[in-house]
Fold these 2 entries.
Entry 1:
Amino acid sequence: MTSNDYRKVSMYLANIKNGMRDSFGDIYLMYEKKVYFLCCKILKNMSEAKRMTVDIFDYVYLQAAGFRDAAVFEKWLYGVVGSRCRRYIIDNHPEMFGDYIDTDSPEGETLDDILASDADEMAYYPDGIEITVDMMQITDNILSELPLKLRVAVLQYYFSGLETEEIAAGEQISLRALKNRLLKGRNRIKTEEHKFTEMGYDAQGITTFLPDILSTMAQSIVIPEDIAASVTGKTGINCMDRMKGGAPADMRSSYSDSDDTMYINTAGAKNGGNFVTTHYAVDRGNRKEKKEMTPAVKVVMAAVAILIIIAGTVAVVLAVQGGKKDDGSVIATGDTTRATTMEITTKPTTERTTETTTETTTETTTASTTETTTQTTTQQTTVTETTTETTTQTVPVITPEPEGGNETPDEGDEDDENGYVVEGGNFHFNLG
Amino acid sequence: MSLMSLKSGTDIRGTAAGEKDKIQLTNEAVRKIIRGFLRLTEEKTGLKPAEMTISVGHDSRVSAERIKNCAVRELSSGGAKVLDCGLSSTPAMFMTTVLWKCTAAVQITASHHPWDKNGLKFFTPSGGFEGEDIEKVLKYAEEEEISESLESLPDRSEKRDFMSVYAEHLREIIKNGIKGGSSEKPLQGFHIAVDAGNGAGGFYAREVLQKLGADINGSQFLEPDGMFPNHVPNPENEQAMRFISEAAVNSGADLGVIFDTDVDRAACVDEKGREINRNRLIALASVIALEGNSGGTIVTDSVTSDGLKEFIEKNLGGRHHRFKRGYKNVINEAVRLNSEGINCPLAIETSGHAALRENYFLDDGAYLITKIIILFVNLKAQGKDLNSLIADLKEPLEEKELRFKILEENFKEYGEKVIEALKEYAKGREGWTPANDNREGIRISLDRNHGDGWMLLRLSVHDPILPFNAESNSKGGVKMIIDEFGEFIKAFDRLDLSVLP
């Protein structure tokens, strides 16, 4: 908790204690995204997370006057989220606990040692890291694929900041069992981080900076407006922030004409037939400041980009013509070595650019002598409603751990409730 | 930090979770306290540690495991035989000294206090440690030096399930108390909902009631959870009582029962969700206690209603001995009266602490509820209900409590001065009659023209607070009482008068 937040929350709690109940609205605004985020990540179901968030804040409203210390209040709040979600899962989705059994970690590896080495790794990032959209998406995927017990341990430790004893007591397990869960969860994240990094994705540092990434994800999450309305209705305290824009009703359109926020849909793993999506709004606050480019520079950059694309396309054509796989089939752009893929597409809606960042990666090999493919990808992310190109970035899907034993692979196409089409295990998100 | 600051009446209590640098019950502090406890127990019992058997239990708090670990290791390394009883109620830990003949017992709990607090209570067969015992424990603790690491200490404790033994003890009491029912399932056909508030009282629903055939549908928050994520486990808390009222009504229960965190307090609600707590609970408990104790004396705290006094003395033929606030105060007073030959079967507070002489004057919420259930079942067989027993209890229409903060450093002296001044002010004042049986602060009855009720001003034992209570039998009476009192109190500029409406 930052000292600034500590002061604010302490003030709000003092106000509530002194009878100024309206300050509950301030408490709500400070924690709505964090609580909703935590519920989403534990329950993996947005509508259940919504209901849970409303119930939790209803309870907080009744108890807030009993707190003086902001840090104690915050820990209690996250503990309540964990407890209530746990109870909800026991009562409604006991299968989510699955076949995961608590076992000891390998000899010689202790949580304290691993956490210490994670802390040491910070030295390799003297300037910190930029928390990119890709990083958030990859982290979201990794997290979603963790078994429930490991996921909760990781979230409560790295996001909520609870101590291991507190998490163990909340989960009603021994401290030793909790440490093992935390260690295993962390190790899985590290393994996936390596895999993604080796494949060239922006994943390096995920484990080291996990608290910051999770915090950014929570800040960026798009929260359904009816949560605030429901809490207002239950408590009688105005929790609606009229200055906030709120998410567009249709999350499939990724850019809005009226604000400078880009909405990105990411996928969690399948959960009992319901696709879980989490919506993040990436705005200026989550990105490093980029230098404003002059119009002339922008034109030159655009021209260079177009030339690269043309060159790449030519190379691909040549590769397709000349390159074949061992089985005689043609190597095509977009082929990957993984059986399943997930695509995330970002798309512009207008041409107006006020601030643009462009990152271009190009991998080129000759098709005739090697088996690699030539592929040029340009990824452009903006904080306003402008890009000039549509790009596709492929992110491998992590093979899910069995959780509950009732997850079966998709067969054929099916539409999920959000209109995302699943084809034989490949997830495509078409925005707009 | 001085360990003396952890004294809280007859308990030791402090911050045990949350921000690391604010924790008072650190491992080192706990270890020292346990050593101090062991030393005092040696003095009290004349036994060497190697001759002692000490049981250790805890409630559902998040810091319980850590503190217990320190306690069992220190006790083991001190030479005592240690029984690790795990999740337990406070009264059950005392009962280990009775049923298992333990030399002493340690209960790790902070009752209904917030999640980040914890504490220690100590028992011997003669009862809980008194305030001066706690002072000695802490004094000895401060003399201790911790040199070896906690991990180097052996844990030779034996894990024992005392709550099953205790639950069986309560089941036997119910079986023996119910007339004419099935010997094994005497609660068959009865529906009782239990709200344990995620404390240690969940065992009562499953291990006592359900095993005796009761339908416990509607019971809630039975699983221990130190964050108390549903409501504060406190029968005096309005929200908590609302929870059990709703649970009982919604599930169609005949009776709803609620416990506090460590089960030394309880309350109940009837099938319509009407609360049986505070004065009503005292009235019901008095009915139970005075059966076979005709003319007996009931000791209560000071804030009980006039209607309760009338009920105990006119309806039940007993005597009402209104004493001081604080469950230890009322219990000790009851013990004292008995030692002077006065038949005193019950000591009970409006907070729900009820200690029956037949149960070692142990404030045990589970035992009280057990007695109420026996009465309830026996009444049902006669076509009656619990409310019929207390139908004649006159209850106030209005009540209010104000707490005046004393701004003076020497708050005890100032507070006593205010009380003495009120005694003088009340003399001869029209419509004001100071109570002659009051033993704490000053209690004044007011006639119909001055509020039609009573007021009580007393000094808090530990805090710089002057609590003020008022009740009235008439609408608007409390406001009248407070207005009259306000005329007096506003002369005192070292009191925070902002609480006056």
Note: Chain B has 14 helices and 22 strands.
Entry 2:
Amino acid sequence: MPSRKHQPRTLRPPGHRRSITRRLAIILAAAVSLPLALCVSIGVGAASVPMRDTLAVLCGFEADERLVRIIMNIRLPQALTATVAGAGLAVSGATMQGVLRNPLASPFTLGISNAAAFGAALTMYFHGMYFYGSGVAAQGNTLMGLGLSRGGVATGAFLCAILAAFVILVLGRLCGTRSETIVLVGVALSSLFTAGLLFLQYMADDMQLAAIVYWTFGDTARAGWNSLGVITACLVPVSAYFWSQSWNYNALLFGEETAQGLGVPVRRLRMTTMLLSSFLTAVLVSLLGIIGFIGLVVPHVARILVGSDNRFLLPFSLLFGGLLLLVSDTFARLILAPRLLPVSVLTAFIGAPVFLSLLLGKRKT
Amino acid sequence: MLDNVMLDVENLAFQYGCRSVLHDISFRLAPGEIVAVLGPNGSGKSTLLRCLNRILRPERGTVRLAGQPLAAFSAGAIARRIAYVPQHIESAPFSVYDAVLLGRKPYFTWRASESDHRIVESMIRRLGLDPLVMRPVDQLSGGETQKVALARALVQEPKLLLLDEPTSALDLKNQVELLGMLREIVRERNIMAILSMHDINVAVRYMNRFLLLREGRLLGDVRHEGLVPEILENVYDLPVEIHTSEHGISFIIEKIE
């Protein structure tokens, strides 16, 4: 019997196992950082809460009634919302870029966010005659309208976003099945909705205008436990589906025909993925407003860190998107304290230069 | 069992919109055969390969593999029987190893088994890709990328291999090596291969059968002795003559008046 030493070396090259371990370690690091960041985020703000008390409240121990209220009613839902929203936007962006094979695809660039904003504005314009938007909006009780609830605006935004997604997919299909077409249709629709939004802003009275403009600032403070529940209930199954399709997305990276040759139902996969990621984005944007750049930038950074293999890319984008929006949200609360800056302003400010530096860095290599 | 596997194409027709691309193509293939599809640009070579793989649904006609119509198979089942390498290969930032491993995807749902890895490993070695094994595919040369795509198709362990101009990016040495190896693998595994090719002289050296296409019609289904100047002139619309070297290798050149 030949000893093990003399058996021919089978199985993967050593570098292969190492590269998998490395990627798993990066994902693990993100997974560990997330709860830490959550605790820090909950602790800081107008009223600072010591870490020990934060942990005590989170674990359900006895604590100061005031602290419990701050944490359970304001800080915790906002921090969790930022996390799940960032995760959702990032994973939508990653899968859209994957199936459309276009690095510019994201919920924002495809016009789904703009459609939601238009839908929200339309609802406010036709219904929200007594709208009130104010500077203290970020406290979470902004959209106090007579005759129109926050839910109503969210519904209008959601319907419009979903409609836009359908139009993009149907037109994309009519104009040809190429993925570039879908991106171009998205860009065209995006500017159409922007024009519609501008028109409504022009026609609106002062109150409505303030409400419309305020709505478009994506803000995690808007969400309470209910919204958080809705977002989470959408995020979990959609992400699970995306992750289960990782190998198919991987095959698609080598071209449509190669993927088809490997048995991937390319058209069906693209349709389902686009619909689900549009749906997820629509839910997020209609509840929170427009938060740009996370969906575009996070997948790119994630690709640099863990590579393009979707088995690793998707979970990492999810964690990293959550982490990034949580950190941004925390900074946004602190940066102009005692004023609270909506997180979307910060993500746009940071996102653009980060994105440009990534592009330039890529060109150098 | 394996010997019964056979490809049977009957009255295949395809059109893009209202433009007919393939008319009434019929032929049969036995295991161990390696066939070149020859014809001028736009004669329907690539479309024929795509129809055989059901990437394109033929308008009319049937394709049977081992007696069963392809339309009855699921996409995954087709991928376990037919492997296809398109003409334009796109590369992604995956290591050569992972890119080839993708060829085993039709056989596993989430985790590749030990035997999948073994198959991938030995194919990488056989095609001489082992020095590149952890290099990202998008940093390889055109020829190397083509080899990776071929390795991926071969680890699918297909009964039928469809290669759309598999040697277009290869230099002479690589062409000779690769086609030689391909012929060997086809014989050894008793499978079938259909290659669309532009270089008729390379085809003549490595293939034992030729499908001649022009404007979507099958003008000839011939073996070496059937490749006569008349039929080639008909296909390419160019007067040609055939020379045979002292080693018995024939080559075809344009006829100079």
Note: Chain A touches chain B through 25 residues (CB under 8 Å).
